[in-house]
Amino acid sequence: MPFTGNEDHTISLEDAAEMTERYRVSAGAAAFLGGYFSKKALNKILGQSSCVGIRIYNGTNETGDRNFVLVGVKADGEDMTGGELAEYATGCPPFCPVSSELTGTA
């Protein structure tokens, strides 16, 4: 499947809140809810020549904690594994927003 970098991934807050709630219910109280990546890290990936987007992989670090690995994606759908990668999101928990519909705290 070819990618253009202009695919629409828009979702309403209501739908996003429902999706994250379903995950929280199924994953349990100690679940890894999400992670923060800086603008700098994202721009390093997106700024690569031929990069049209980012793919996010689930991973587990050396201590067994869940995390994400981010990689650039080319128009042909292939990962840019020879380029910039990002890992070790600042995890939620413990670094969650005080009030957000997406964590069930609003």
Overall mean pLDDT stands at: 90
H-E string: HEHEEEE
Strand content: 25-35%
Strand order of the largest sheet: 2-3-4
Descriptive notes:
With 106 residues, this protein is of the alpha+beta class. The protein has a domain at 34-106. The chain is built from 2 helices and 5 strands; from the N terminus they run H-E-H-E-E-E-E. It has helices at 13-27, 39-46; strands at residues 34-36, 51-60, 66-74, 85-87, 90-92. The strands form 2 sheets. It has a 3-stranded antiparallel β-sheet with strand order 2-3-4, with helices on one face. A two-stranded antiparallel ribbon has the order 1-5. Strand 2 (51-60) and strand 3 form a beta hairpin. The protein is globular.
Give the SSE map.
Blueprint lengths: L12 H15 L6 E3 L2 H8 L4 E10 L5 E9 L10 E3 L2 E3 L14
Antiparallel strand pairs: 1-5, 2-3, 3-4
Tell me briefly what this model is.
The chain is of the alpha+beta class.
Any descriptors?
106 residues, two-stranded antiparallel sheet, 2 helices
